[in-house]
Every structure is written in structure tokens, then in C-alpha cells.
DNA sequence: TGTTTTCAGGTTGTATACAGGCTGAATACG
DNA sequence: CGTATTCAGCCTGTATACAACCTGAAAACA
């Protein structure tokens, strides 16, 4: 836990939102729990207004569920919810790649993303040689996916994808940490990086259908990681937001 | 305008949200306009708190844009934004159709959607015979699309699609009214209804790829309507939220 | 004993007061 | 005359008071 002392320059609302999200993701608030405003006022050290705002935002984010009669509860997720979220991300990233190919990406954008690709190559190489470069890889991976979406030059799509990725386990780097423990880690890493390269090639060659198919399949690497992660407890706990997951058949 | 007097049973927040949305969609607030809370308090007859809440909600909805230093402005949209929004909807509905096919829809669900299909057949027939059944068609069309998405049995996808459709011109029935003026109206209506039937057939036959392709192409009917609507002023004004559209090259 | 009613506690929705920050215009200065 | 500075007005973010509502439990009644 890096930041127990929250920066005071942040607005109270943002402070509350971050703190509340942590509380949920760390499992200090369990799925189904009703969240009342007043207790949170004490717990977060801000007044009701920012707490209220944070609750609304987190509901939009998908972590909370509104109760018809007022108030919120912590949402719970099934294994299938995660699979679906990953599939949705893959589908939208596929659309982004296709649009990028069809509309044509500018030369400078392609150079930028190829630079990113090269950096990732280095990191992947070091990782395969036995180092532990996952933090660096996660960051580069996030940057790559962001740049890719931008290639589509579609604000609507960026917006939609932002939402698709808010759930912690839906993001492109959610399962990279799990991957470290995976027996087939080398394969997934190598194949994933090849996807990255191929999709850029496809976009440059204006091969829309191919670019789309690659990104869809690319997202399914995350599904594979997920399936593995669910198999034993240690890897299960590596899943971001694992506390929100209910395994087959509970309330 | 059916409801100039807003139901007093609604909460102030909802009241404010509806009124504010109308104000924006009707063009009484122009794109780029900054929306201050106090003037809205006078204009909507509710206090700052509900106004504030409505603003946050409308930002999430995509009608407003947050100013970094605080406050909101009315968003503006380009022709391409709409095309992209339609493409996104088509892509997600395609995913829904594919999942429905792959996962298998229950017999009773298929019966229900076929009932809806049959009702639409009747309406389409009457329409082609010279009647004006568009309101009925719009409602049935909305119901069909809703049922289709439900067939995928994916809460995540339902959620994502709900968001994709919040923009008024992205919804499946946004351009049906324009269609009435379209020279090729008969064709679009006939083909659209055929899409509806074919996608259900595909789902029942577990033909995922076909179901997906059909829904993608189905959404492109809306793009066709849009392209036509943009050509002259009368049809342009039929576009929901037309006031938010900026034609090529303005601030 | 089972059902209905009543009531108290807590919770949310709404209104409003207050403080800090931003904006834009007028003014002073180079 | 152009640029930097100051200041007033407004606006948002936050805190808090108040009221309506819902919930759950105890009590009264059939």
C-alpha cells in the first residue's frame, strides 16, 4: 500500500472516490453490503456531499448497484461476467483496429506505436531471459493499447472503451501479473507480443478484417489467464478485485 | 410536447435531469455553452443539489463535457461521431447475437421474440400498404432489439449497450422517423425486417458468425438513413438531437 | 398464536450557507 | 501602445441542517 496518506491537493470528491474504490477492491466491503453515507463520512473523513458524489461515480463505474428505494450495495461478479467483459473489450479493440486500418493511420502515429513495440520487445526479451520486468511490461502494454485505440481517431470509441475497461479485471493488463505464475507464461508473453506486432502490420497494410480478428484473439489471452488464475487460491488472489468474485453458486 | 407539467411524484433529481436533457436536445442550450448551476436553479425550479446531480448524470450520458476547472459545457457532435456511435452499437449488438447463438437461447425466449417479429410483420405490411404505423413500429423495434440483447444472457453486455445507446442518435430507432421521408423507405423497411427474421433464425441454428454479421449490417441501415437525412434541412431537423450537430468545419 | 398496526431509528433526498478559486475587466506600468 | 497586475464578481466545491421516507421491531388485537 503506497499511499495511506492521500494527497490533500486532490478534491474531496476524488479523495472519497479513490478511498472507497480501494475499500471495495480490497474486500473490506463485501458484495451485497449496503453502503450508508454516514458511516463512510466517519471512515473517509469527508462530508456527505463528496461521499454521495463518489457513490454515484462508482455506480457508473459498475462497482456499485443502486437500490430502488435509495442507497447502494456492492456489486458481485461471476466468472462469466469477467469473460464477457474481456470479450467486450476484445470486440471494441477489434473495432478500433479495423477502423484504424480502414481510415489509415498517419505515418507519425505508426512510428510512435512502433517505438512502443520496440521497447516492449526489449522488456519481453529480458523477461524471457529470467528477469522480472512485469511492472515495466504492464505499463508499456497499457500504453500500447491506448495508442492503438487512438489510431482509430474516434472519440466515441475511446469513450466507450474507457467504460469497458473501468472494471478492474477487464483492463488489458489485469491478468499480466497472474501470467507470471502461469506455466505457459513464455508462450502467452511471446504470442501476445506477436499479436501486438501483427496488428500494427495489418493496420499499416490497411487489412481491416485481419486487424480486427487479431485484437479479438489477443483479448482471449486474458481469458486464458483468467481460467488458470481461478484454479488455485494463490493465483486467484492475484486477480484485481478478486474479493468481488463469487465462485459458482452463492447469493 | 406531451408533458409540459412534470409529474411531481418524480424526485427532484430526475425532474432536473429530464428537463435539462430536453433543454439540450431541443437546442435551447447550444453546443459549447457553459451551464452554470444558479441560472438552472431558476430555470428548472429545483435547488442546486439536484441540478448538480443531473449535470453529473448528463455528463456520464455524454451530452455534457466537464471543464477541468469545474463546471460543464454542452457537447457538440460531428457527422462522424454519429457514424461511429452507430458502428459501435452494431458491433455490440453483433456480439450479443453471436453470444446468443453460441450459448443457445431457451425455447420460450425464442417464442417470445418470434411473437414480436410477427407483430412487426403486421405493422410493416400495413405501413407498406400506405398506412402510417411508424410510432407502433418504433416501439416494436425497440422491444425487439431489447429482447435480442437479452438473449445473450450477459449483464455486462446489456450494461455496455445501454451506454452505447444513450446518445439520442445512436439508438436503434433514432432514424426510423427519418425513414418515413426516405425515397427508398420501402426497401429499408423490408430489408430491416428481413434482418430481424434472419438473425433470429441464425441464433436458433447456432450460427454465431452469421448472426453477428447480420446485426452489424443491420445497424448500417441507420447509417444510410443518416446520410440521407443530412442532405436537406427538413429531414435534418428530424434527427433527434440535431441541434448538437455541427456540420463540417465550425467551432 | 398469527396478523396487523404502530412507532422509533436510521437513511436518503433536498435546500442552503460558506469558503476558496477562477475569470475577466479595468488599471497601472514599461 | 502593449503588457503585466490587481481586484471584484461569480461560480463551484464542501459542509450541514431539515424533512420525508423506508425498515424493522415491538406491541396490540383477532
Number of domains of chain A: 2
Low-confidence stretches of chain A: 1-6
Q: Could you say what the CATH topology of the largest domain in chain A is called?
A: Four Helix Bundle (Hemerythrin (Met), subunit A)
Q: What's the story with the biggest beta sheet of chain A?
A: 3 strands, antiparallel
Structural notes for this entry:
- 2 copies of one chain form a homodimer.
- The radius of gyration of chain A is 20 Å and the shape is globular.
- Chain A is built from 11 helices and 3 strands.
- Helices cover 64% and strands 3% of the residues of chain A.
- By secondary structure, chain A is mainly alpha-helical.
- Chain A has a 3-stranded antiparallel beta sheet.
- The A-B interface holds A 53, 56-57, 60, 62, 80-81, 84-85, 87-88, 91-92, 95, 99, 154-157, 159-160, 163-164 and B 53, 56-57, 60, 62, 80-81, 84-85, 87-88, 91-92, 95, 99, 154-157, 159-160, 163-164.
- Chain A binds a DNA duplex (30 and 30 nucleotides) through helix 3.
Keywords:
2 domains; 3 strands; globular; DNA-binding; Four Helix Bundle (Hemerythrin (Met), subunit A); homodimer; 3% strand; mainly alpha; Arc Repressor Mutant, subunit A; three-stranded antiparallel β-sheet; 64% helix; 251 residues
What's a quick, concise take on this entry?
Two copies of one chain form a homodimer. Chain A is mostly helical. Chain A has helices spanning 12-25, 37-44, 48-61, 79-103, 107-128, 134-151, 155-164, 176-179, 185-204, 208-229, 233-236, and strands at residues 34-35, 64-66, 72-74.
Topology of helices and strands:
The structure is a homodimer of 251-residue chains.
Chain A: H1 12-25, E1 34-35, H2 37-44, H3 48-61, E2 64-66, E3 72-74, H4 79-103, H5 107-128, H6 134-151, H7 155-164, H8 176-179, H9 185-204, H10 208-229, H11 233-236
Antiparallel strand pairs in A: 1-3, 2-3
Helix pairs in contact in A: 1-3, 4-6, 4-7, 4-9, 4-10, 5-6, 5-9, 9-10
Chain A binds a DNA duplex (30 and 30 nucleotides) through residues 11-13, 36-38, 46-50, 52-53, 69-71.
Amino acid at each position: 500500500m503506497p499511499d495511506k496518506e492521500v494527497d490533500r491537493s486532490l478534491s474531496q470528491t476524488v479523495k472519497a472516490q479513490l478511498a472507497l474504490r480501494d475499500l471495495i477492491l480490497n474486500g473490506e466491503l463485501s458484495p451485497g453490503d449496503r453502503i450508508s453515507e454516514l458511516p463512510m463520512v466517519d471512515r473517509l473523513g469527508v462530508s456527505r456531499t463528496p461521499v454521495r458524489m463518489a457513490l454515484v461515480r462508482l455506480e457508473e463505474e459498475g462497482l456499485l448497484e443502486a437500490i430502488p428505494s435509495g442507497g447502494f450495495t456492492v456489486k458481485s461478479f461471476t466468472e462469466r461476467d469477467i469473460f464477457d467483459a474481456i470479450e467486450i473489450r476484445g470486440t471494441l479493440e477489434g473495432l478500433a483496429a479495423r477502423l484504424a486500418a480502414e481510415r489509415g493511420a498517419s505515418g507519425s502515429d505508426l512510428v510512435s506505436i512502433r517505438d512502443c513495440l520496440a521497447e516492449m520487445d526489449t522488456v519481453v526479451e529480458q523477461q524471457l531471459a529470467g528477469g522480472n520486468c512485469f511492472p515495466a511490461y504492464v505499463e508499456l502494454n497499457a500504453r500500447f493499447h491506448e495508442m492503438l485505440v487512438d489510431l482509430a481517431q474516434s472519440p466515441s470509441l475511446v469513450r466507450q472503451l474507457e467504460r469497458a475497461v473501468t472494471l478492474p479485471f477487464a483492463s488489458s493488463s489485469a491478468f499480466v501479473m497472474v501470467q507470471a505464475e502461469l506455466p505457459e507464461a513464455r508462450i502467452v508473453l511471446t504470442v501476445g507480443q506477436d499479436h501486438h506486432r501483427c496488428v500494427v502490420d495489418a493496420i499499416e497494410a490497411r487489412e481491416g478484417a485481419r486487424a480486427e480478428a487479431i485484437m479479438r484473439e489477443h483479448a482471449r489471452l486474458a481469458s486464458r489467464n483468467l481460467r488458470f488464475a481461478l484454479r488455485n487460491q494463490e493465483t486467484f488472489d492475484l486477480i484485481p478485485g478478486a474479493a468481488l468474485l463469487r465462485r459458482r453458486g452463492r447469493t
